[in-house]
Amino acid sequence: MQPKLGSHVGMSGKEMMLGSVKEALSYNADTFMLYTGAPQNTKRKDISELNITSAWECMRAHGIEDFVVHAPYIINLANTVNPATYEIAVEFLALEIERTIAMGSHILILHPGAHVGAGVNAGIDRIAEGLNEVLTDKHDCYIALETMAGKGSEIGRSFEELATIYDKVVHNDKLRICMDTCHLNDAGYDIVNDFDGVIDRFDQLIGKDQIALFHINDSKNARGTGKDRHANIGEGTIGTDALRYVVHHPDFLHLPKILETPYIPSPDDPKKTIPPYREEIALLR
Fold first, then answer.
1. What is the C-alpha separation between 85 and 88, in angstroms, rounded?
2. Is residue 39 pLDDT above 80, yes or no?
């Protein structure tokens, strides 16, 4: 069985989701990740304008079985300081779940949030409160909490924090985890020398069956620096061999592996940047 590899792709113009599929195919990908709109805001086109039917026809014709959706960065369920920020986060997350389902995906990736000074415990309680508002047993969609690097007041930098969120969510059967290799490294987990040990620790706390996908990124930072700066495959402190080990790990071959590495200078025009995904996917295969 070959690993399921893809990358973040755009969604814009007249083709919308069909254009996303075509971009993924141009990288020789067999899965992909998209945002339903700009990740920095809540402006979204109506579902009827997303060209979903044509996108799925193209996916089926080329053997792509699934894709994942990433919620926008502006959703911060952990905010206890500004009630308006929290209310917007809950309201928009509920809409993103509906959009994810309408587009035919079953995974919505979410950054757990940042407590903005109120403390980890208060932030976790707020995250659980928000998830309890939006999650029901009727939704055919999982929210995949992303492992975070620990930048600023981010929550989700440790498996213990994620496990506590699980414990406080009523419908936690609708939760899953998105493992980000750069974030794990920057949070202090030794995925270079002991990936299996890291997974064993996660398995003890949450269960490795709860991992829904991986973000495959190298890191510009040393382990434990908590900075979250992605590097291109083989150009960071994690390295190609360690990332290839993750991608080809027999326990997770069936899961989507999504690249979020930086664009690189164009060989034809150094002032422009181009996606590296076709070459990086080939490198990891």
1. 5
2. no
